[in-house]
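note to self — DONT lose this again. spent like an hour looking for the file last time. sequence + predicted structure for the chain T wanted, 724 res
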Amino acid sequence: MKKKDTLRDSLKYYFGFDTFKGDQEAIIRNLMSMHDTFVLMPTGGGKSLCYQLPALLMEGTAIVISPLIALMKNQVDAIKHISDDDNVAHFINSSLNKASITAVKADIKAGRTKLLYVAPESLTKPEYVEFLKTIKISFYAIDEAHCISEWGHDFRPEYRRIRPIINEIGNAPVIALTATATDKVRIDIKKNLNILDAKEFKSSFNRPNLYYEVRPKTKDVDKDIIKYIKTHAHQSGIIYCLSRKKVEELAEVLKTNDIKAAAYHAGMDSAVRTATQDDFIMERIDVIVATIAFGMGIDKPDVRFVIHYDIPKSLEGYYQETGRAGRDGGEGRCIAFYSHRDLQKLEKFMEGKPIAEQDIGRQLLKETANYCESSVCRRKLLLHYFGEEYKPSNCENCDNCLHPKTPVDATNELQLVLKTIQATKENFKAEYITDILLGNSTDMIEAHKHHLLPTFGAGANHPAAFWNATLSQAMIEGYIHKDVDNYGLLKLNPAGKRYIKSPVEFTIVEDVSFNDDNYPDESAATGALDETLHSMLIDLRRQLSIKYDVPPYIIFQDPSINAMTTFYPITLEELQNIPGVGAGKAKRYGQQFVDLIRKHCEENHIERPVDMRVRTVANKSLTKISIIQSIDRGVILDDIAMAKGLDFDELLSEMESIVYSGTKLNIDYFIDEEIDEDKVEEIYDYFRGSDTDDLDTAMRNLSDDISEEEVRLVRIKFISELAN
């Protein structure tokens, strides 16, 4: 491969780009100057180029340590296809046989291989250590570096052994890269790798090409998702669900409705997961349905939508998952379906964990709920969570900014909030402050004598949602902050203290009501300027991907195809002016594309969203029969749930389906043991006199000490005895 005179020439030659993105150039120059480097860059920011380009230019072989075998293979394939040398990049991991490893070692010894990807487990094997001692190493790149830290969200013990192994193999500059890290994690990474003096590069977390939207989660959520996918045909997308059971059910529903989809979760056989991932990357399927908890490690740049069927446990998790969309810089739509019931389900999962862990988990859930319910710019909220200020008042690429609510003056109300925080010595969380303002006399408030404060009940003329919005926007404006290390206690900032004495105008937008189903029509998908040519180029790309057994985006990414339909390049030289098309790609794939474009130009003298019936998957009748038989034998419901691999909430849903379909269930043996007789009588009498069996309506009309689970159990008894 011929090197170019300058770094930007090399970027253009190898990767087809005219300019670097963000801090990429500074990071590369720092590394090529033989300095240790720490990179905190969000998903889609271009981390991999920060070590791929210098590896191609520097003497020796770069060792890239990566935790995901699938990601290694994808990156090696991508490097090979920007080059005219198939030996330029290799990987060594447990998926290779002895003959393949021998061939890889020969290429490295001959100096042909510039990047060697290894799993941390492989790096520690004595035979590899001895081999790597014999070669010239340009630098070490530690990808997904947060895996080093026990405070990180993906801790891998093998990562803690990387520095001793580097010392044994031979010193060279180290570049550590991660997409997300708190200060605690960042310091832990640098300390463990012994790169405390490394120069740090922290990129903005803003992804301007991503559109954020939250929709109410109704009974028609499956239909909403199918309609969205049908009106964005042939686009790649990921749907995240809370449970493996829901993943499998939704994938079946999508397939039944002629959508190329597959399930993907940690409980599946590894060979099935690998095959599914390959099918997704090669575009044999369009949609992956996955569990929220499972990190897929898919390096696929042209994911066009990420849908959250259930809300994630934290905003950091949400940001990571939505970050898989639009990594090529093209459009990425991030849609979350939200309901209060999901929150309750997630809180229930925390039961049994240590109290401190439960408290932190609830704080994280509260942040996610605030994001979902807020009318403030979604982008502003997300960036604020990561400690970054977003100054524009309207991002023009989220549902709240495209459909803004009317602002309300809250100058006096903010004063009330700040005075209450001050009067309570900055020792309480948001919910406590809201209770004081609403005049809710709880045991804790009375114990602290806070019911005697002048602000107690002073905000009773506004609903809780108003005060939630005021607190949220006061944080964004910098008047208050949450002390994360002290369980989210609210603290006054200097600006907040000044505001108490000298208030200025302060407006809020009240939080979203999730009874509103008026959302913009998604049917108008953006198309290329020349749709006929676009379709032809996509077909050609697919044919070549099959021929070369590589993902379509390896050949040309979507933005490059779109640009071809605008500029009509008809020579290989012109093709290299298209973003993302370097010399290697033009030489390897370009001729067929320019020939097709030329023919199209000569021949043409250059120049339905419908509502649908959703087909449902047949009920798993065997599961229902087994539940009926177990209840007939008087088996405790918790044991039935465990035996069927269901959580208790899912078992109740199955039982509700059984009784609503007309079959009787006698669960008196369980109710008599678990629920007070007075509660059973109150719930039963409520349903007898109510004109609706709606759960939320029931919860509003029953005593506060009655749980949703109790209501559902007695409702099953009621339907079984009276309706059936």
